[in-house]
Amino acid sequence: MKDERGYFGDYGGQFVPETLMPVLDELSQAYRKAKDDKDFWRQFETLSRDYSGRPTPLYLAKGLTQHCGGARIFLKREDLAHTGAHKINNALGQGLLAKKMGKRRIIAETGAGQHGVAAAAVCAMLGLDCIVYMGEEDVQRQSLNVFRMRLMGAEVRTVSSGSRTLKDAINEAIRDWVTNPDTYYLLGSVVGPAPYPAMVRDFQAVIGKETKEQILAQTKRLPNYIVACVGGGSNAIGIFYPFLDDKDVRLIGVEAAGRGIESGQHAAPLMAGTVGVLHGTKSYVLQDEGGQIRETHSVSAGLDYPGVGPEHSYLKDSRRAEYVAVTDQEALEGFQLLGKTEGIVPALEPAHAIYHAAQMAKSLDKEQIIVVNLSGRGDKDMDIVAKELGVEL
Ligand SMILES: *Cc1c(COP(=O)(O)O)cnc(C)c1O
Asked: Which residue of 33, 115, 156, 253 pairs with 230 in a disulfide if CB–CB is 3.0 to 4.6 A?
């Protein structure tokens, strides 16, 4: 499915300035070597266990299941991984690769700060220098995560260009990389030029591998549905990937419909975008008729991105996966529902998936099984949710 040049069908590739090509070639080669290196994966597995806390549990959500009165809902608890989200899987994998390549200076971008925190943690643990680019708007919205990164020794650089959010932070990180080819760019999702989409997926696929073993051990069969939220698409592809050949398992990605798809204020390129190029990769993107990238909106910073990983574009066109979108209001409902029925406060990103899974479960019979990827915990979102609900803290 993925060819030598890093395409997934028509999507993917390396749409970057000439000067970046040698650096991408170096990275592709290093990753190809690491992929076949048993020692590399042994290190990844040992640290995943002892540092990140893997395997994360697969939990039968009885309260939520009972509330919906239909299909059984299981939660893959990435919210229990170190630093509070699935982002640590990829940060750890790439941190180990950077170290193997002899790189000492690591750069990363971050939106809500979750990837920045994961990158900062891994760099502190591996003894690497870490610089995190973050949009000015996000620095203000997520000041707690900025402080967390600094506590772990990372330098946070504020980006004041464009919409001053994730897209601009990535632009700035790429600019840094072009001028500092000895630097390692630790990209946070399955986006960007090859080899990132496939490499990040391989590190996140640990989620799906564990899920498969756990659901077989607990129920003796595969789930009927797997539901995950889609920003760049890394937690979704991570849980989907090991199930791609299990054709009876339906894979459902949930994008952010923001204030509604019709409003234009959303972050749903698979639902409402067109094919284009963003950050070095060809995929569905939100753009105007002149090809300019459109402003996006989502209540969850982690889903607030105008592009999506190229493999998802391929899975959409080939219909192996289905994509839907959930609004801000619905996500806030999902957020509160999980707290009340399970005593788990999810991040706003997977709250989109929770809402959709709960809706689905209601109309399915009790024999059916839905697994939701609970990609992260909600601590980072307390201020935002309180404000949305009109609560004074
Ligand atoms: C970053 C983030 C996301 C969105 O990124 P993907 O690459 O689409 O997974 C989703 N959930 C959480 C908790 C995140 O931190």
From this structure: 253
Please indicate whether residue 309, judged by its CB atom, sits closer than 6 Å to ligand 1: no
Which protein residue's CA is at the shortest distance from atom 10 of ligand 1?
A: 349
Q: Token match 């203000």: residue?
A: 140
87 is catalytic: yes
How many residues can be counted in the chain?
393
Question: Residue 154 — left, alpha, or beta (φ > 0 → left; ψ -120 to 50 → alpha)?
Answer: beta
Strand residues in 144-267 grouped as ranges (E): 155-159, 184-185, 225-229, 250-258
Phi, psi values for residue 301, rounded to 5° = -60, -35
Cis peptide before 306 (omega within 30 of 0): no
Please, is 205 exposed, middle or buried when counting C-beta atoms within 10 Å of its C-beta (0-12, 13-18, 19+)?
Answer: middle
Confidence check: pLDDT of 306 > 50: yes
Distance separating alpha carbons of residues 387 and 383, to the nearest angstrom: 6
Q: Please tell me the predicted confidence (pLDDT) of residue 3.
A: 54
Atom of ligand 1 nearest to the CA of 376: 13
Written as one string, the DSSP assignment of 79-107 is: GGSGGGBTHHHHHHHHHHHHHHTT--EEE
Residue 18 Cα to ligand 1 midpoint, Å, equals 30
- Asked whether the whole model's pTM tops 0.90, one would answer yes
Q: Which residues contact 177 (CB under 8 A, 6 or more apart)?
A: 20, 23, 107, 183, 185
Full DSSP string of 320-359 = SEEEEEEEHHHHHHHHHHHHHHHS--B-HHHHHHHHHHHH
DSSP type of residue 294: P
User: Is the CB of residue 307 below 6 angstroms from any atom belonging to ligand 1?
Assistant: no
pLDDT digits 0-9 by tens, 101-134: 999 999 999 998 999 999 999 999 999 999 999 9
235 lines ligand 1 (CB under 6 A): yes
Helix, strand, or coil here: 341? helix
CB 285 within 8 A of CB 307: yes
d(CA 233, CA 190): 6
Query: How far apart (Å, rounded) are the C-alpha atoms in residues 268 and 151?
Result: 34
**Measured distance CA(209)–CA(360) in Å, rounded:** 24
Distance set, CA 338 to CA 351, 357, 363 (Å): 8, 11, 19
